[in-house]
Amino acid sequence: MSKTYNIAVIGGDGTGPEVAQEAVKVLLAAAAKHDFSLEFTDFDFGGERYLETGEALPDSASDEMRTFDSILLGAIGHPDVKPGILEKGILLRLRFELDQYINLRPVKLFPGVETPIKDKGPAEIDYVVVRENSGGLYTGTGGFSMKGTEHEVAVQSMVYTYHQVARCLKYAYEYAAKRGKKSRGVGSENTLGLCGKTNVLTYAYDLWERVFIQMGEKEYPDIRRDYYHVDATCMWMVKNPEWFDVLVTGNMFGDIITDLGAMTQGGMGIAAGGNINPDGVSMFEPIGGSAPKYTGQNVINPLAAICAGAMMLDTLGETEAAAAIETAVADVTGTKLEGMAAGRMGYGTTEVGDLVADHF
Ligand code: IPM
Ligand code: MN
């Protein structure tokens, strides 16, 4: 009997529901061809619900999400809601409560997609960032004292525990071992690069570097280790992206460098990510925002959401179907689309979904 996966869909705000719908379309097409089933259940978490109820997320949400095999998220962010409320109240809350401690963000230039980096193509821009997703500046302690006075103190601390660092590095090493970018890039080995700032953040990234080296020497002697400061990482991501295979970093740096990475792979329209709890329920999303001004116009690029769907299948173990979606996306970018930006694809949102789904 073929397997059935239950998927929670949080379309969210703005263009989120539109792109999620195209991802669902492609996932269903892939499932039919690869002999498994998908059941989707919609949730209305987002700005509209918040404006009506005053509640970003019901307290029961995480427990409810735990009953699903995976979560597909469109986008969170509403123009009438103060920045921070929905981001923290929905997206970050789900990431933390479901302990999705890995944020996996491939930086992959698909064929036919324009990159702002001169002389680099799909062979050079193809690596994965493993962003720690549970700690650091995002969950460190902080607060104000003497707020509003000339003596105001604001603290926001980067806090990392050994446990958080070790589990993230473990995932990153395992990922580098299985990814196998052999013979590409600089060397011929699988490589894990640590992106830190050991010259200034001499506590938090000292811990990262020590565990990185200890774990690598002891458990992953065949994986080559590189180290880059975060500022230099930005430089090399533009100058020599082919150096990278798998990069691992803390939460804040990972947030920042993956926006840069997204631009080098053709923009937010194509950049996908996964919030992963390897032992629990994971959540997949296009990494761009809700793009409210394009809502309902059928112009937004659904490929990031579709690629997020592929990552979801990969994580569920449906690796062949996941790879087939990627191949279909590569064909669509390589032979059909004029551009990645909203309104510049040469096709509408639903047509792009159809083009990918028609490969199955
Ligand atoms: C991302 C976003 C979020 C983050 C925001 C919306 C809280 O920028 O997914 O990268 O900072 O993680
Ligand atoms: Mn971000």
**CATH topology-level fold name of the largest domain:** Isopropylmalate Dehydrogenase
| Total domain modules | 2
The helix content is 25-40%
Tell me which CATH architecture of the largest domain applies here: 3-Layer(aba) Sandwich
Short synopsis of the structure:
It is built from 11 helices and 12 strands.
Structure write-up:
- The radius of gyration is 20 Å and the shape is globular.
- The protein has a 10-stranded mixed sheet, sandwiched between helices. A two-stranded antiparallel sheet has the order 6-7.
- The protein is of the alpha/beta class and 360 residues long.
- The longest helix has 19 residues, at 16-34.
- Helix 1 crosses helix 10 (319-335), helix 7 (230-239) packs parallel to helix 8 and helix 10 (319-335) packs across helix 11 (349-357).
- The protein has 2 domains: 1-103 and 274-360, Isopropylmalate Dehydrogenase; 115-131 and 158-265, Isopropylmalate Dehydrogenase.
- It has 11 helices and 12 strands.
- The model has no long low-confidence stretch (mean pLDDT 96).
- The protein has helices at 16-34, 47-53, 61-65, 85-97, 162-179, 204-219, 230-239, 251-264, 303-316, 319-335, 349-357; strands spanning 3-12, 36-43, 70-75, 102-108, 126-132, 142-145, 153-156, 191-196, 224-229, 246-249, 272-276, 282-286.
- Bound molecules: 3-isopropylmalic acid and manganese (II) ion (MN).
- The site of manganese (II) ion has 2 residues, from helix 8.
- 3-isopropylmalic acid is lined by residues 87, 91-92, 255, 287.
